[in-house]
Write a structure and sequence with these properties.
With 205 residues, the chain is mainly alpha-helical. The chain is globular. Strand 2 (60-62) and strand 3 (67-70) form a beta hairpin. The chain has helices at residues 32-48, 79-93, 111-131, 141-154, 158-176; strands spanning 52-54, 60-62, 67-70. The protein has a three-stranded mixed beta sheet, with helices on one face. Helix 1 runs parallel beside helix 2 (79-93) and helix 3 packs across helix 4 (141-154). It contains five helices and three strands. It has one domain.
């Protein structure tokens, strides 16, 4: 799995400090600190209750099935990269009709689709700031940036709207995982829409 590391969030002006990525910390693979970090990532992911299927070489959320598909952890450069990608997909997962009910029924390449990608990117940054994860990236980030620029020109509040939805998603996940208090994740029942388009969201180049 090839990775690139654009400074996407670092290039966005006006975001609150809580979206800033954590400073990288060198941890020796296999060290007690590394194992503890892995355990923390695993506990967070498991605590959300999301259904995750491992295999293949793409990371994506299938709303119609309500499942996240992830490559095996070994396909990533580090376990933290795996965690960051999972955080991105988990943010999409919160948008299901039975949870935070964001509009996910948009075609790939549309501005609405790109807006949801921005929510997921910001959400993963918030989660990463708590879990010590790197800022992940989007496979077709250049095309998304073009959509984001047009979106921001059309509505100067669009970035803050996306940030608010990302913060709502991150809080929801933290509550479900037991890392924050609240009631957002206490009930995951409710109607499930089958009209969503399958989201590719691949992070492999």
């Amino acid at each position: 799995m090839r990775r690139c590391r654009p400074t996407l969030l670092a290039q966005v002006d006006g975001l609150p400090d809580r979206f800033a990525p954590p400073a990288p910390v060198a941890v020796e693979p296999g060290s007690p600190q590394d194992e503890a970090h892995r355990a923390e990532i695993d506990a967070f992911i498991a605590g959300t209750g999301a259904a995750i299927v491992h295999g293949g070489n793409q990371a994506c959320y299938y709303p119609s099935l309500d499942t996240i598909h992830m490559p095996q952890p070994a396909a990533f450069d580090t376990y933290a990269d795996y965690g960051a990608t999972a955080a991105h997909e988990l943010t999409h997962w919160t948008g299901h009709a039975s949870r935070l009910n964001r509009d996910l029924a948009n075609r790939f390449g549309s501005e609405a689709y790109a807006a949801e990608e921005l929510v997921a990117e910001l959400g993963s940054a918030l989660i990463g700031a708590d879990l010590g994860l790197p800022v992940t990236h989007l496979d077709n980030h250049a095309s998304y940036i073009d959509h984001w620029l047009r979106m921001l020109r059309a509505d100067e509040r669009a970035l803050m709207t996306a940030a608010a939805r990302a913060e709502e998603a991150a809080t929801y996940l933290h509550v479900r995982a037991g890392r924050a208090s609240g009631t957002e994740g206490d009930d995951d029942s409710g109607p499930r829409s089958e009209t969503y388009a399958v989201s590719p969201l691949a992070l492999a180049d």
